[in-house]
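Q: Hi! First time asking for a complex rather than a single chain. Here are the components, and I think there are three in total. Is that enough to go on?
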Amino acid sequence: MNSSDPGAPTGLPSRRQFLRGALALGLAAAGLAAAGCRVEPGAGRTQTPPSAGPRRGGTFSGLAAADPPSLDPYVSGSQGQAEFSAYSYSRLFMLKAGPNVARGSLEVVPDAAESVQVSPDGLTYTVRLRKNVAFHPPLDRAMTAEDVVFSWNRLTGRLPGSTPSVRAEDIQMVEAVAAADQYTVVFRLKNPYPFFLQKLADPKVFFIMPKETGTAFNPAEKVVGSGPWVLQEFVPGKLARFKRHPNWHLGPEIPYMDEVVVNVVPEYATQLSQFLGGNLEWVVVQGPDLKRVVDTVRGAQIYERPPYPLSVLNFSPREARWEDQRLRWAVSMALDRDAMLDAAYGLKELENQGFKVNRYWHTHIPAAFSEYWVDPKGPEMDPEAARYLKYNPEEARRLVQEAGGSFGTELHFAAANSRYGEPYRVMSELIVQYLSRVGINVRATEEDYNSVFIPQTARGEFNGLMWIPQTRVDPFAYLETQYLITTNKIYGRWNDAQLRDRVRQIQTMVDPDRLRREIRGIQNELLKKMYVVPMPYGAGLTFTAYQPWVRNAVEYQTFGQGWPSECLPYYWLDR
Amino acid sequence: MAEQTPVLRPARRAPAPGWVQLIRLIRAKPLGTFGGLVVAGLLAVGLLADLLAPYSYDDFDPARRLRPPTAAHPFGTDEQGRDVLSRVVYGARVSMVVAVGSAVVATLVGSVIGTLSGYFGGTADLMTQRLIDVWLAFPGLIFVIFLVGVLSNSFPVLILTIGLLYSAGSSRVVRGAVMVIRDSLYVEAARALGARHGRILLRHILPNVLAVIIVNASAQLGSIILLESSLSFLGFGPPPPFPSWGRMLSEARTQMVYHPNLMLFPGLAVTLAVFSFNMFGDAVRDLLDPRLRGR
Amino acid sequence: MTRYLLTRVGLVVPTLLGVTLVVTVAVRLLPGDVIDQILGPDAVYVNPETRAALERRFALDRSIFEQYANWVIDLARGDLGRSLISGRPIASELAGRIPATVQLGTMGLAFALAIALPVGILSAVYRDRPVDYLGRSLAILLLATPSFWLGLLAITYGFILFRWTPPLRYHELWENPGANLNTMWIPALILGAHVSGRLMRLTRTTVLEVLGEDYVRTARAKGLRERAVILGHALPNALIPVVTEFGLQVRLLIGGTVVLERIFSIPGMGNYLLTSIQQRDYPVVQAIVLLTGVVVVLSNLVVDLLYSVLDPRVRYG
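A: Yes, that's all I need. Here is the structure of the assembled complex.
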């Protein structure tokens, strides 16, 4: 069941999911929004209330679509790698989870760290470590600052014989990391970064590894971390088995469950069948199957995932025509975002089945960041800016004619074998058709993800248009990618000095309120300039379903890949 | 059959009129005829898709998405509101183009290689066959994915790639047949009489392996259609917006349970096409292969 | 004949070297490399030093031929190398996956023969009668239906209609035969049904040919019963082209199992190969193609020899 959001800011109405009689449990679920919800037949029948209090023990059957790239967390910065390594390796911080935490919240709590002090200029972060962070067997000691510095050196390739990890790219604002004493680490930054703690909390960035890594054991073949789950068995293509870490520094109460098994199930239809058959504890459900899940599994708990990631449509850096703002506006206004959401995520059907749906529109910040995203359909957004996201084919056609008349171009997008899934594909085809209706005659150029889309198109080697999801873990990272990085051809060509300065200013802000105001404020300008067109992929509704006996599942959810250590330890099995 | 016993035969009758022969043929080979009709039908549909399809294949309208089969949309509509019947019709064009194109490439390349290799034999044959071994060592699907990855998934590349894939098998079959004929008595006689290789190839070898070539080609067509649908399913097939049946099957996965028509009709189309090509090919072989006529 | 035999055997190793050289070059021709895969689309900074360091680590900065030569040398020492991405030894990864693919293929071929032989013989014996039409139609129908379609239908409707799911995890045959067969029988059947179409028609044709041969007529004239004629004479000769087909089918099997492996969560080689190609994990691709190459080359050798032994019409000059 989706947790209601008592603390949700405006723009993100709380939402209620329908199931037969599932109850929210524990501390959770303040008022359920009642308006507009039709009742499923049989909803009056109540589910057995949870047995009092969390119960220890049990095995949790999870799933993954593929193996992680490696057992060594530094090899890849992919989401698969991040989520897998988050079971066994700790970070300094992590995202906060809990019944009162708003969906998409970026609030950070200490993981291996105990506390942090930030200098007023935002350039020095002094992190105090906990003294009880215990490494997994065979190491029998606590983590010290030396381990953190070692990990840093390994990450950035400073160790003799090591190569820098691609993850180091994400944290390149750090100039130096040094141990002040046995349990204190000092990070010195080249320039301030408003969400630095979130960066340290991101499983795609910095895991702490013991200093024996590479010498006493090979991290590609053995996992020795300090996270809540100890890797027991890894069979490539089949499964990974973890046991709870009895000395976890956030324990010893949690993790409640004894064991987690991550099963590799590549095909979605099979994943769904396994969940419906009771063999899996959770599954990501696509809209069209939601009703089937709810009907088949009595008491299934449904969590609505935050609208993420952002996706953007980019203009070819080789073509001068896109410098005409009117064309860029036309492209954006030619698209019916609500219809695209409906087609890609089946929202109309969900409505007909009695679920309440929200049609979020991303701005240049994804709607998931509820504190920072301004709803273009809401009152806070400047109507002069919001109109560029509204469906207006007549105006788009007019702009195209004004800017020189109809023309032909291409849209490059990743083929169906990419990891983006069905909604992306459906929207790709719709984009082609919508644009053609306003005089921009687009030829669909579907590209192999691995061969062409990533190595060439994503680096700017394309003509016409391309569109791509963008995953960044904090709102500023999006601004940075789009307006500060000059080495990327796609974004570097927009030489807007005034905008760049404005973003640089945001970078230096330390006061969280001011930061929030500024990020909210800049979205108007970004829409008016429209260097990059925000797209609705990622803003649709996707769900995670849990078996009825998995308690705390819906209350403890975080955004990002840290779920294995931020949420899973709090789950318990009521059977 | 009694053929050696001398019998007084009546004077030869005039041959039966054409349409009588046709009817006899149909009655003798009902499945093959059915297959042939469907094949002809599919080719026609492919050619005339623009005239036959009630809607364009990319005529989308989210307002009428996911409709069940009705009079206006006999096969229903997909998640973008496009008419499934029209897309199946255009899909026929895509499948026919790829299938026929690939089969032509496979037949040409395979026949040339197989004939030369089988006829001349010796070291050339040995080496060629080892090269074919190399070729064949690649798992088929992977071979195509390779080439499509390097080049692109445009139609010419697909046709060339699939054609090359099948030409290896073709060449083996042709080679086998050529070797048998090469050693037959009357080819040996022709050679003894001093006929040149070219003449022997054209006059004696080719006409006799023609049957094998045709049969093989017709057998491959069905397999090619299946391969193309598997490729499309995995995401390597013809690019959008052209509908190909395999692609439609892949896209129907999400809606499969509540809208089975999306899965059903493209799947039936593939099955029907492959079935018909095979039946037709069987009938062709039965008719052309002299060894089978007697019984 | 012996000279031919020796030549063929002698050529096995060069053929394999040829195969592996071709794939080594081919896979490096694919645009993008493993570093691009690791960097992904979000690598905005793309520090050139990072890239250079990674290239050195993966030995991608050396020439193709140098990379190939090193690979062959390692191979001669029995070392298949390590995956570029996971860092784990390839030999152990393959060892974990080969049994599944081999089992799937074998079970598939067994199903195929079990369907194709009887149907083919019956079709030939009762040629042009209803049994023939029925048998052929059935076989072609099986051949014509896309295997991935059947697989998806099986998974989805298997649950809806029968509440059946395949076992969550793949179990090895020796570990848990019940669970293993429960996972494998449907994909093997789908695979086998597909192959049986080809084999059935081949069987039918060959049996027809054989039944028209002189020596069969002689046997009949001698008074042998029809069944003895078929089993004693027609069947063995019918097997010849069927055996030939096997060689071709092996190769098709490895490619054809990819989709079924994905759908039924079978950790086999097909999916592994596809993933490695997509990730540009060169050593893995080379190792798998080497393996396939060995199987195909050897089976072709065996088939060719069998063919020449069984059918004296074919001579090798």
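A: Chain C has a mean pLDDT of 80. Let me know if you'd like any chain examined more closely.
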